[in-house]
Amino acid sequence: MHILIAPNAFKNSLTAQAAAKALQRGLLKSKLHCTTECFPIADGGDGTSELILHKCNGTLVNMTVNDPLGRPITASYGLIDYGTTAVIEMASASGLRLLKSHELNPMQASSYGTGQMLLNALDGGVDKIILAMGGSATVDGGCGILSALGVLFLDVDGNALKPIPASLVHLTTIDTSKLDVRVLNTEIVVICDVDNRLLGDKGAAAVFGPQKGASPDDVKQLETVLSRFNEITLEQFGKNMAELKYGGAAGGSTAGIHAFLNAQLVNGIDYFLKLTNFEASLQKADIVITGEGSIDEQTLQGKGPFGVAKLAKQHNIKVIGVAGKVPDEPSTGVKEYFDELISINKQPIDLPTALKNTNENLVKMGKEIGELLANKKPLSF
Length: 381
What we know:
Radius of gyration: 22 Å
Shape: elongated
CATH class of the largest domain: Alpha Beta
Helix content: 25-40%
Number of strands: 13
């Protein structure tokens, strides 16, 4: 029996690589005679670029950029396809992980550092850029990225505004005359881990603003800024960013770079699996184990485990989903893609303890799955 182990990261607990290794250790501790392959996955969130570089034999480029609050830091991006494609993770320059909890302030945070990485990649002569947008600390509609590439955001007197929401409340005109033309001749693919639109109750400000430190008043101001940005973009350039699927990802940065850089917005997991040739490994498997922190109906909206399960089902391969949290009664849709859905927590437990025990519980679950498969027993947990 050959088992393909393909989990996503367990948020705030384990990377996808660590989760895969934990499940593998458990399986190998069991009596099951099997071979295994670890194929950790990502859907555009934190850690996506690292996994792509590993699977595609990429190299790292280190550089100095501005962090979300404008401070110099060292960030890195990758090169694949013999140096012709850059793989840039927004979180590396503009991520939540770069800020302490008391520093979170999306009204003052900018995606400028991510734009600096794009500029550096262009200087290196790439002809394609893959952008992973998860884990950002910003809700600036990508104005920081665009500013680094030469776009000017002007107030009523024609003065250039700092590309942060606190200044962009005064936005009147957008000047693209100094936009680096090289970027318009470069293929840009944005891999997105959420499909929210830019504005409204399920938009960038309302849903993701609070996660990035926004107060209720901040959320209202951020919505006003993004709405104004969209109105001016529609008025000047005839592009309505509010209509875009995925336009609310990364604090609306996806919408901004689609409108001004002609970037293609794609489902993260589908793109990742194709880029890394996941199907070649899948075709050798008898069973697939996938998972992440939580698997439920929302997983079917394009999350990593769903992408794995969907592809596995096309090859009639059994799928076991493991997660810290699963529904008591999975929906018909979930059951269609996951043959078994298992919580690694055997009893109700508080979140901090669950996060702390994730690695240990994944090892235990791997062993338990192995024992049941070895004894040819149904996987009833």
